[in-house]
Amino acid sequence: MTDEQENAAWRDQCRRQLERDVVTRIKYGFCHVHKPVLDDAPVRAFATMAEFRRWCDRALPAYLGYRLAASGRQSPCPKEN
Q1: Residue 72: left if φ>0, alpha if ψ -120 to 50, beta else—which one?
Q2: For 39, which DSSP code?
Q3: pLDDT, tens digit (0-9, with 9 covering 90-100), for 15-74
Q4: Which pTM value belongs to this model?
Q5: CA–CA distance, 66 with 35 (Å, rounded to integer)
């Protein structure tokens, strides 16, 4: 497939998507990704934001991005270390 054909196919797909109603576009516009620990319990409650942040820091995987910012802590992304 040439670049011109790919571009034409992409434009056709965009036109088809715009013909859908808003509810359908929203339905297919998002994908659910399971987040370990966060999605494993139906409800969690914390008395303070500080308590929530401490829980996130110790309970969640670093790659989710909920860790406390601290100097000296290595980044979970290998390129940044």
Answers
A1: left
A2: T
A3: 998 899 999 988 888 888 888 898 999 899 999 999 999 999 999 999 899 988 865 556
A4: 0.49
A5: 12
